[in-house]
């Protein structure tokens, strides 16, 4: 099978490096990149001297040899990039959030259904975290029985002086439940196996950044599937300065026969490194080091492109995670 060829359009978020890494490690070839910002293009070219800089994005959209367009553009711009790519016969791999409004989501869904292209979103807190992948294997194997509830915590480090202007503009980043909450909604659907959920409550706020009124620095959501499985999501920009990583991301899954806790990026109890999984079941308690677990997303996505399958992530779940995030964001803002 020939190598998959992809091109990058939009490099405004550092998640682009994870997207490129996932595809390259699975054998894909990046044939070019386009960035509207000269400073970002210069830095990117220095990091990837083997990837040509293309001045006109049209050349990448129109190149018949390119299979996939990859983008981590400003969130509010990603839907238009995806639509244009699909209309040019390309599959698409976006950074999260893939869309920042329900109207954008509807437009992308319509074009995806019309063109039958793959529109995928690399929800990195799932697909780039070995502990999350391992938890998925355990849940699928019945290690904790049927999932009853899931709690996802996503604290992030703000680094306010280093952020670009669009980061603080609500319409461009989408709101906190859309921007960083999208990760958690995808994981909720994945671990519960649900196809939909109701938003029971949602809230957002700006508690400590009055100088940036467009920023939401905290948000939470309570949701429930039609089958009665519940979830709680909390995201914020309050990672303490003393933490050595960008956020103490945690995931708690309760099943009928056991529980799983993930400490994804750091164990504040003192174990070195990240990717810690704690499994408690009928036999006892155990700590599992997941750092060596394979991340299958890249190879699965490439196979999906060539075989027209949905192994890496079902198309319906990709869209539903964004729909839930957008609905929760709307619910929270209407309640303010």
Strand content: 15-25%
- The count of DSSP E runs of length 2 or more, i.e. the number of strands, is 13
Report helical residue fraction.
25-40%
Low-confidence stretches: none
N-to-C series of helices and strands: EHEHHEHEHEHHEHHHEEEEEEEHH
Strand order of the largest sheet: 7-8-9-6-10-11-12-13
Number of helices: 12
Shape: globular
> Which secondary-structure class do the elements indicate?
alpha/beta
Q: Ends: how far apart?
A: 54 Å
Q: Summarize the main sheet.
A: 8 strands, mixed
Q: Could you tell me the mean pLDDT?
A: 98
What does this protein look like?
The chain is 36% helix and 24% strand. It is of the alpha/beta class and 336 residues long. It has an eight-stranded mixed sheet with strand order 7-8-9-6-10-11-12-13. A five-stranded parallel sheet has the order 2-1-3-4-5, sandwiched between helices. Helix 1 crosses helix 11 (297-307). The longest helix has 21 residues, at 315-335. The mean pLDDT is 98.
What is the fold's blueprint, element by element?
Blueprint lengths: L4 E7 L3 H11 L3 E6 L3 H10 L9 H6 L5 E5 L2 H13 L3 E5 L6 H14 L3 E4 L1 H4 L2 H11 L6 E9 L14 H4 L2 H4 L1 H12 L5 E8 L12 E7 L5 E7 L13 E6 L3 E5 L12 E6 L2 E6 L7 H11 L7 H21 L1
Parallel strand pairs: 1-2, 1-3, 3-4, 4-5, 6-9
Antiparallel strand pairs: 6-10, 7-8, 8-9, 10-11, 11-12, 12-13
Helix pairs in contact: 1-11, 4-5, 10-12
